[in-house]
Recover the amino acids of this structure.
């Protein structure tokens, strides 16, 4: 009888461990298709977007931040309204004005607006050695902080490591370092990045969302 109980416990343990592994994989990759679609539109490596979401909310679409950031990519209401205005669609402007939390709680809308904002930030740092690190720092702490931290340097030539060492907010420095490490970790099981797509007018992008 004892041997039977031990066997049952072992089997239950194996089932529980297997279930945990499969659930973790499901949880971390259930938005992969949405991430890939929007990342391709805005010419961002989907693995970078995935790593950013991992750090921001660990794929919890309902999270509201301390500064009222909403959803997977922790998009602020102001950013959502700027995006809505740029689309030229009055319905989006109305939705973001009347209930921006509900609007940004939709995973695909959140990722769409978050990628749009990330790309707008990146334009300022494009082709710099620390382009990705600077964009992540600006996404987390604001572009004015990046300007402040690099004011006494030649920001256009700073290496990534040099820039990270200048980040004066410990939480932002940890945020940038963590995302970059995860992004560049070869063990992250993400699909191969597709070739960058041509940038389309935003009015065309929203039609299929």
């Amino acid at each position: 009888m004892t041997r039977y109980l031990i066997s049952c416990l072992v089997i239950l343990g194996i089932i529980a461990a297997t279930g945990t592994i499969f659930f973790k994989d499901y949880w971390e990759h259930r938005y992969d298709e949405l991430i890939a679609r929007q990342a391709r539109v805005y010419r961002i490596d989907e693995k970078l977007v995935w790593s950013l979401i991992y750090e921001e909310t660990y794929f919890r679409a309902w999270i509201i931040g301390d500064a009222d950031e909403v959803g997977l990519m922790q998009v602020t209401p102001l950013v959502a309204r700027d995006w809505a205005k740029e689309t030229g669609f009055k319905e989006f402007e109305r939705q973001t004005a009347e209930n921006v939390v509900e609007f940004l709680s939709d995973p695909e809308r959140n990722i769409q607006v978050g990628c749009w904002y990330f790309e707008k930030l990146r334009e300022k740092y494009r082709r710099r050695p620390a382009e990705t690190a600077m964009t992540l720092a600006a996404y987390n702490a604001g572009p004015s902080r990046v300007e402040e931290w690099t004011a006494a340097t030649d920001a256009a030539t700073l290496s990534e490591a040099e820039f990270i060492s200048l980040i004066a907010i410990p939480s932002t420095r940890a945020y940038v370092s963590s995302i970059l490490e995860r992004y560049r970790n070869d063990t992250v099981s993400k699909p191969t990045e597709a070739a960058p797509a041509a940038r389309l007018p935003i009015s065309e992008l929203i039609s299929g969302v």
Q: What stands out?
A: DSSP finds twelve helices and no strands in the chain. Residues 121 and 135 are 6 Å apart (CA to CA). The chain has one domain: 31-208.
